[in-house]
Design brief:
Number of strands: 6
Structural class: alpha/beta
Strand content: 5-15%
Order of helices and strands: HHHHHHHHEHHEEEEHEHHH
Distance between the termini: 46 Å
Number of domains: 2
Length: 341
């Protein structure tokens, strides 16, 4: 016979705490109110002059979007999980509420950020908290890029030609236009084709926290955004990157500015690299490989694929994805430090 209890909810919460709730642990180290304040400054809350139901608090929505990225959920799945999952309800502060943000509310909040040009606000706010915790960028910086795939488009030959010219077939109806990604592009890597976008990232060597990112279409070469993601705040002037970033003129210019360039060399069929260059490549690879751990961490959060359409929404999602990665990494660093003592 199944035992019933008037205190079943409290008993389940107590057991959840005993088993270990990762979201509860995150709350101990992250100031979500401060994150919400930063988001509100970048994208002010809409006016209520016209009346209507007040929007959910920004802090609640920030928590919802971070959960969404931590668990790689669509807007529809996020709505369902908020209705169904105890740990999510407790984390966002809706344990005793009959109302939850539905898929439309979540989409509207994201659009508010995009329209205000505040897609990067959460990533910047999280990085400020990292500094407050003492995790400033140290040990040099590692630069790399990763392809993020988007839903493939079914286009005719003529339609593809128009899209390449940043134009849209006149016969497309508005509903169809909303479903077509005009920004994503094809690229090849190791002989395999990919469709979507690319995120260039800079992570510090000491903590493996992401300090700078740039989102672009997949067809743009990695090297185009190399200088854009350099972090002048890093306490070490070493820059590590793979052979895709070789550019003699740029390396000479950055070296004159005080940067110490550690970029792997690449050979060709007619001019292979020397034994000394091969040894140098291996020394660089041993350290540079740490940024692959960063991209692997983001991949665990679903950071290798998008459900969105367009560069603006891809930029928003990837900034929140990297912010979620940094927060999870922060919790790991804080908890590991506690255990060490």
């Amino acid at each position: 016979m199944i035992k019933t209890s008037l205190f079943a909810d409290q008993e389940r919460e107590a057991k959840l705490n005993k088993l270990g709730d990762a979201l509860r642990v995150m709350e101990q180290h992250v100031d979500f109110a401060a994150l919400a304040d930063e988001v509100d400054r970048a994208a002010p809350r809409p006016s209520r002059e016209r009346g209507g139901r007040p929007p959910f608090p920004t802090e609640l929505m920030v928590r919802v979007l971070l959960i969404q990225q931590l668990f790689n959920l669509s807007d529809e799945q996020m709505e369902f999980q908020l209705l169904d999952r105890l740990s999510f309800q407790r984390f966002v502060g809706l344990r005793s509420s009959s109302q939850i943000p539905d898929r439309t509310t979540i989409w509207t909040f994201k659009e508010r950020l995009i329209q205000a040009g505040a897609s990067e606000s959460i990533f910047e706010a999280v990085n400020r908290q990292l500094s407050k915790h003492g995790y400033i960028a140290r040990g040099g910086q590692m630069v790399d890029a990763s392809i993020v795939q988007a839903p493939k488009q079914s286009l005719s030959k003529n339609e593809k030609a128009l899209v390449k010219e940043n134009a849209m077939p006149i016969e497309w109806k508005p509903a169809k236009r909303r479903q077509k990604d005009m920004d994503a592009r094809w690229t090849k890597k190791h002989g395999k084709s990919y469709f979507g976008y690319k995120v260039s990232a800079n992570a510090d060597k000491r903590y493996k926290l992401v300090r700078k990112i740039k989102v672009s279409t997949a067809s743009e070469h990695d090297t185009l955004h190399f200088e854009e993601v350099l972090d002048p705040a890093n306490t070490n002037r070493n820059i590590l990157a793979d052979k895709g970033y070789v550019d003699g003129e740029r390396e000479e210019r950055l070296s004159k500015q005080g940067w110490r360039m550690h970029i792997q060399r690449k050979g060709s069929k007619d001019k292979p690299i020397s034994a000394a260059q091969e040894r140098r490549n291996k020394r660089i690879a041993k350290t540079r490989a740490r940024i692959e751990h960063v991209f692997a961490g983001m991949a665990q959060l679903g950071g290798k694929a998008l459900r969105t359409i367009g560069l603006a929404r891809a930029t928003l999602q990837l900034n929140w994805k990297v912010a979620a990665y940094n927060l999870r990494r922060l919790v790991y660093l804080k908890e590991a430090r506690v255990e060490a003592f």
